[in-house]
Amino acid sequence: MALSILQQIAAGDPHAIDQCFDQYGALIWSLARRLSPLPADAEDAVQEIHLEIWRNAARYDPQVASEAAFIATIAKRRLIDRQRRRSRALETTPMDEAPALAARPAVDTLELQEEAERIRVGMGRLRHDERRVLQMSLVEGLTHNEISQATRLPLGTVKTHARRGLKRLREMLDVDQSSSIPDP
């Protein structure tokens, strides 16, 4: 029986890591882009994820999960760890020690805060199921399949809640945005 890519990596095959990049690079990149705010952050995250895959390849058991599921789990965990580190850094870093944040114009920061508040209020106005699905998808980074499993809702229902929730949130934000623009 042929070894899987992860089993080949664990066995030290130098070509297996290239096969892994070829086979699962798009999956890893899509997860990184979805959960990283900037393309540069996504690129850094992809590098960390590949290193983590290399370190953990020996833990892969084809009896427990598919190779894609194992890799996606590693990727999501690494991305969530990065988000937590970023959140802690923003909460604990004084402004004088954060030149990138300090250099951002106050107007941009204020606009971001106002937009975040509008989103928070809009999320609060959504129906419970829509809010829960969007929170799991956008904040926790779960796929629709994972949300379906976690909530025990049919996949189609999860997708409907996500679609309707996003549509309602977008409509609320558009109304809020247009009502806050002064008339000339």
Mean pLDDT: 81
User: Which architecture of the largest domain does the CATH hierarchy give at level 2?
Assistant: Orthogonal Bundle
Total helical segments: 9
The main sheet comes to: none
Number of strands: 0
CATH topology of the largest domain: Rna Polymerase Sigma Factor, Chain: A
CATH domain class of the largest domain: Mainly Alpha
Distance between the termini: 73 Å
Task: Give the helix/strand class.
Answer: mainly alpha
Strand content: under 5%
CATH superfamily of the largest domain: RNA polymerase sigma factor, region 2, helix turn helix motif
SSE order, as H and E?
HHHHHHHHH
What's the shape?
Answer: globular
Radius of gyration: 20 Å
**Total domain units:** 2
In the predicted model, the low-confidence regions spanning at least 5 consecutive residues are none
Helix content: over 70%
Description:
There is one protein chain. By secondary structure, the protein is mainly α. It has 2 domains: 5-92, Rna Polymerase Sigma Factor, Chain: A (Orthogonal Bundle), CATH 1.10.1740.10; 104-179, Orthogonal Bundle (Arc Repressor Mutant, subunit A). The chain has helices at 5-10, 16-35, 39-56, 67-92, 99-103, 106-125, 128-139, 144-151, 155-179.
